[in-house]
Give the backbone structure.
Amino acid sequence: MGGEEPNQIDLTPKKDGGVLKEILRGGEGEEGPLQGDKVFVHYVGTLEDGSQFDSSRDRGDKFSFTLGKGEVIKAWDLGVASMKKGELARLTCASSYAYGENGSPPKIPPNATLIFEIELFEWRGEDLSPKEDGGIIRRNIKQGEGYQTPNDGAIVDVHVVGRVNGTVFDEREVKFPLGEGTEHNVPEGLERAIERFKKGEKSSIKLAPKYAFGSAGNPSLNVPPGASLEYEVELRSFEKAKESWEMDQEEKIEQAKVCKDRGTLFFKQDKFRLAVKQYKKIIDLLQYDSGLDDEKKAESHSVLLAGHLNLAMTYLKLKDNSHAREHASKALDLDASSVKALFRRGQANLNMGDAVQAQRDFQACLDLEETNKAAKQQLQICAARIKADKLKEKQLYGGMFDKFAQQDRAREEAEARRKKDVMGGDLGEWGNAEEKSDQGKFDLAKDLDIENIEML
């Protein structure tokens, strides 16, 4: 590749001439795309001899990629990052910043210098929301270092500046365990974003209301109901929580006990979603118990059972009856004689409208514990519900049968009227018709000189 022309800019960090940019048409404003943004471009790619090997314009569809993530050749990550909205530029790319010594057969030969004419149309921040619904958008201001990111339970030290409608409502340094942000007025969406940060990273985060403080807002921070928020966040440091695979079985049991205690504390404070997170950790930690002696295995079994029982109760509080029933059933898999599991599954079944199955669960409670007053009360509720359901069913089907009978009678009456119309109306007319028919027979016999008219 030749040297740098006067109107070309060397975009390479080492200034080795590997990516030369020539602006063919200037763009708008001063802002350009940031690392992690999704960019939308048109391009035409040619070899040095002018032969075209690719063109998004010919296809009629803009090309998009995430900037700085290695989804395209190095020259593109460098080149597009330098552009402004609406800019048209030509990039001359050495093979070391393109497809290298192997090329990209059959169109791009080995060690080929490539020339791209690129037009930048727009860019969007990186969507970190679970369903990519645009609810959590990150734009990188300063890249972090290394490759590690904080995991669930990691202690993160962050500096945050939060704005609503352009007004700062929160500016502080805060240190907290990731997963418990709501305890520190850190909304769910911001926590999800921080999970993707590297140490030292600084980014802006835009949150839709459902990932911020929702329809309730946050009066303590003067955030109105249903507000979208924008944060500027710097992750100063973090200390990763120990992963389960890094623990031996005895460590897992001890950690599960800690989670159980924290979950119970949150439950007593009516912080049910935080309680669920802690109880779920018990299941993750203790789902396998290989390598334990009998005593430790029994201890692990006991804590795991408590995890499922507590999840069932917490999901009942959250009115999530299907998950409550699921975990009560899993508790019964561990202990078929667990009265608590039977009772909580009975409650979930009753809430879901299955009074018959709920009745079986509450009766099983009484079979195991005859003095259980709560189960007796629930059985009475089940009996009343079943009776009411049967009455409703009877009324429903009774009404259906009456309707069918009315339809049958209506059809019969309609058929009778139809026959009456076809036959002339009454028997007198029918009789006259017969007489007229017989008279016709006599006239025919006379005309034919037939003596035996009975033959007719």
User: Anything to note?
Assistant: Residues 425-456 have pLDDT under 50 and may be disordered. Residues 373-422 form the longest helix (50 residues). The longest strand covers residues 114-124.
